[in-house]
Amino acid sequence: MKRLCLPLVLAALGLGCAGSIYRGAFSLSTPSSDATVLAAVADRVRVAAPAPLPPVAAIVADDPAQGLAVIDLGTAAVLGRVAAPIASRPVVAGDLVLARSGGSIVAWSLSGAERWRFPDEGLDLVGASRDGERVAVVLGGAGVTRRRGVLRVVEAGDGSAVARTEIAHSLGLPTLVGDDVFVPWDGQNLSVLDARTGDERSRVRSRDDVVGFSFREGHAVYYGARALYRLGPESASGTAEGTPHYQPRRDELPGAAPFALDAYTSLRAGADARERVRLVWRPDPTQPGVALLHNTVFALYHRDVFALDAQTGALRWAYVSPNDLAGVSVVRAGLVVVDDRGGASLLSPDDGRARWRQALPGAGPQAVLQLPSDFSPAPNTDDPPRTLVQSLLEAAGGSDARLLPAQRFAAQSLAALPGAPATAALVSLLTRRALSPELRAVVGEGLVGRTEGTDAMLEALDHHYDYVRGVDVPPVGFLARALARAHERRAVSALVSHLFDPATPTDDLAPIVVALRELGDPSSLQSLADFVRMYHADVGAVAPVGGGDAIIERDITEQGQLNAAVEQAIEAIARMGGAPERSLLDRVQSHPSAPEVVRAAAARVRDGAAPEAPSENPPGSAAETPATGPSDMSFGAPAGRLSPDAIDGAMTPHRAEILACLRNAPSRPAQLRVQFRYDGDGRVSNVSVMPAAFQQCVAPLVAQVQLPTSLAVRELGTWICPTAQ
Amino acid sequence: MRPSRTTPLLALALFGVGAVASAQPRRPVVTTVAMVHPTSEAPPGWDLSRADDTLARIQRAATGDPRRGALEISSALLAGVEPHVAAAGLDTLGVLARPESADAILRYLDHRRVSLRRRALIAAARLRTPAMLRAIEARLGDSDPEVRSEAARTLADVGDATSVRALWAAFERDASNGLGSEGSSLLQESARALGARGGEQDVDRLLTFLRRAPFGALARAFEASLRRAELPDPVKLRVVQALAGIATPQARELLTRLVDEHRGRPTPAIDAARSAVSRIQ
Fold first, then answer.
1. Which residue of A360, A514, B74, B146 has the smallest Cβ count within 10 Å?
2. In Å, how far is A72's CA from the nearest CA of chain B?
3. Domain-wise residue ranges, chain A
4. What is the predicted pLDDT for the residue at A640?
5. How many beta-carbon pairs under 8 angstroms link A with B?
6. Confidence of residue A7 (pLDDT cuts 50, 70, 90)
7. Given this model, what pLDDT does residue A711 score?
8. Does A533 touch chain B (CB under 8 A)?
């Protein structure tokens, strides 16, 4: 290998002088190889016989300073233990386990005996690849911008050096096949070096994608970072379009799971969150082009696994492990998962059912698996089949706060499924006590708009808060909106009962009233009138029982919510009522203690102005027309509110500005729920944002939005702002 | 309880025009058998938009014919008044204790204001009808702890056998919840109510909660039991013996209080209590 220091060139390239650089290998001026050369490389890979891989797991101890255990997954026997401290995620390379330890890169046999070591040169272990009697090891691992890497090729038996290349570039995961070493570097290149000399034989330079890893699967070498490429003559194009590749079809997965981990940044030994949130897949080299085993991508999120159709992105099943997953690997028989309590399972690729379970004689937060693709333990469990809805319900529930992104994803996936069982599952979620406010909003909004499975909603609505029996308040607001949208008139009596239940949250009252108005059932008119009678002047303080200073029993927000409900009830009476209700509205209009907004509403409908009322149904839909036919009240004028589409059209241009409020947020919600008032001139006010953490930033932005003009006098509006990029 | 309890049409069907007219106090009233219900309209001459005027009329109604007063106040409450007026109206209905107030009281048992629900409970207890007792029992499950304990407190005074079942459910709901040696206010009040209204079996059942439920709450129950004249001596003796058995300072304090209250009126239970007090250090 030739070495030549070129400080001037390095300076010109902004790379700094690393002490030595190779002109041939990794030279920036070397062009991409042509198709003929790459075809020859691919041919060499194709004819090379891969060595059999023992199915093992290297399990790092809870304290990586205590070393690791090597376990045969086929027999569940401990093959060996390493007592040395482990400073980097281990690499299993055939019958060797390598890790950074005590200033060296150390190779142990699977029985735990040290085979050899060499100095780590102050660098992390990036990766290692074994083939035949040699091992290629890459050091670096400080990130793609930290341009210093070392490639060593050593004899597997004693670690004696075959070749060493130190370079002022960042190096990715290597692959050794025969005399060829495949090394990604600088995020853009894949060089094929001669394992014996370090000379560069050929190169792929990507012009529009990232290259971080390479690996061998059967008779093919794959590379990529955000997409998966199969090395072949087409790779010479250097473009994604010109090269057969696979790219995942969904980008809103829990935790924004990356297609592959950043190969230029080494993982820590032990629990490393990056390893717990990612996509897991395995190519099928027997298929032409780039295809994945089971045509499935598995999205991993700590304890959860979501199986997605590789081509369509459609969700197939979800699996929730009882413990965090320390290691995951795809094989032809399914998905092997090892949890951090030492439980190993083989999940069926079809439905996620466990087909094999094994308690391993060792446990730890990190399990590095080396499994041949044909690893197939004999089934030893017969779990009952589960539907996608059932598995999503499990994934969306639970009380582990870390899993919120996965729960949100599961809930959104549930909401996207048709059918009554999905509706029932959403209702079941929504009525759970421990549901976080953010997830409650996601599930609730997912429920609104569903028309199948309203029986489950009605059943939920039958429950009332009862401290003694331990019954919680059902999510009345969401249920009311959903049932109104579904035109479900059977809900009327239950909605009325919740309207008068003091345990009903104040902010659910307006949705109940609006739903009753939308449903237009004449049986609710008397109750709406009673509600207005009871609360139209319910302001001010009251002396407590037993005497003392009078106290105001609700805060400004609650009073506003109550006023809004009364206002909506007045509008509803105007739509549905008859002459007998006129005197009530007269009295409300002139009551000196009634809040201004309530008196104004009564005056408005008495004067024949357009009633203002938010609607779950688009104008003109069946539920818009009261079942009683045209009102005999002269003040029942037609509605003049903005449609949801009109609101969305006005808000969406400001979405990017609004989403800037989510930057650096510890948790990114799937959507923002924005409620506000607007008038006929399109002015927005009284903005309320859920999650409330974004209220301060988002509310002023929304208040600046100019909506289209309308006949509305004072209207409630809702805008759902999706946050996916 | 659910809303829409005004039934003038029903009254019309059953008793003729006079029954409906009876809701209007200035007209002749026919009330031989039927109970007349209030309307949801302001009584004639009442201006509900003027709080001072309404309060004055409530005051006058309280001092006049009780039946008419209850109807007028109930009608005003059902028609809707400001909360401090409603508070005064409910207090007055409690004093009047007329069955004509039932509709208004039931409605206000579901009011969103805690202070009004509590007042409605007190008024409901004065009526003592089965319907009112069931409504009070329902408030044991109220979302507000003050209302829950108020419900238990009123049941201690007026509850029946059905109430005892509801009180047990409330007691057991909070019996294992801790909250120190006293327990929640619902636990304390439901325990006292059980001691006051329960039968012999209920008192024995309360004894099984010694060392399992907060003693402060149980002490209220046993005090109430031991003060009951109709409770047989053997039951009271079992209570005293159980308290002597746990021999805690709190038990001694309770027994001492019992002995002091019954000085000069010896019974087997009091004698046993006196003996236990001398033994417990």
1. B146
2. 49
3. 7-370, 386-447, 448-624, 644-722
4. 54
5. 111
6. very low
7. 65
8. yes
Integer Cα distance of A92 and A50 in angstroms: 15
Q: Give the one of B40, B50, B119 whose C-beta lies nearest to A533's C-beta.
A: B40
Task: Give the minimum alpha-carbon distance from B57 to chain A in angstroms, rounded to a whole number.
Answer: 18
Give B78→chain A minimum CA distance, Å.
7
Note whether B81 contacts A537, CB cutoff 8 Å. Answer: yes
A165 vs B13: CA distance, rounded Å: 104
CA distance A190 to B267: 101
Going by C-alpha positions, the residue among A117, A94, A101 that lies closest to residue A65 is A101
Closest residue of chain B to A586, computed from CA coordinates: B49
Pick from A612-616, B152-156, B175-179 the range whose average pLDDT is largest.
B152-156
Distance between B170 CA and the closest CA of chain A, angstroms: 5
pLDDT digits (tens, 9 = 90+) for B63-98: 999 999 999 999 999 999 999 999 999 999 999 999
Number of helices (H), then strands (E), belonging to chain B: the values are: 16, 0
Residue A378 scores a pLDDT above 60: yes
Across residues A147-167, what is the average pLDDT?
A: 94
Chain B residues with CB under 8 Å of A545 CB are 115, 118-119, 122, 150
% residues pLDDT > 90 (chain A): 69
**What distance in Å separates the CA atoms of residue B272 and residue B117, rounded to the nearest whole number?**
43
Instruction: Give the Cα separation of A436 and A20 in Å (integer).
Output: 56
Judge: A473–B143 Cβ closer than 8 Å, yes or no.
Answer: yes
A592 near B CB under 8 A: yes
d(CA A711, CA A681): 8
**pLDDT for A118:** 97
pLDDT at B11 over 70: no
Of the residues B48, B55, B103, B143, the best mutation for testing chain A's interface (the one with the most A CB atoms within 10 Å of its CB) is B143
Task: Give which of B41, B54, B82 to mutate to test A binding, by max A Cβ within 10 Å.
Answer: B82
Segment among A46-50, A443-447, B21-25, B192-196 with least mean pLDDT: B21-25
Strand-by-strand arrangement of the A104-109 sheet: A91-93, A96-101, A104-109, A114-119
Residues of B in contact with A540 (CB under 8 A): 82-84
Is the Cβ–Cβ distance between A560 and A676 less than 8 Å? no
| CATH pick for A448-624 out of 1.10.3470, 1.20.1250, 2.120.10, 1.25.10 | 1.25.10
- Spell out which residues of chain B touch residue A468, defining contact as CB-CB under 8 Å: 140-141, 166, 169-170, 173
pLDDT tens sequence across A260-283: 999 999 999 998 889 999 999 999
Residue range A7-370, CATH number: 2.130.10.10
Q: How confident is the model at residue A320 (pLDDT cuts 50, 70, 90)?
A: very high
CB A349, CB A334: distance < 8 Å = yes
* Contact residues of B toward A, CB < 8 A: 2-4, 40-42, 48-51, 78-84, 86-87, 107, 110-119, 122, 140-144, 148, 150, 166, 169-170, 173, 186
Q: Is the pLDDT of residue A631 over 60?
A: no
The two domains A7-370 and A644-722 share their CATH topology (first three levels equal): no
Q: What gap in Å lies between CA A442 and CA A409, rounded to an integer? A: 9
CA distance A464 to chain B (A): 10
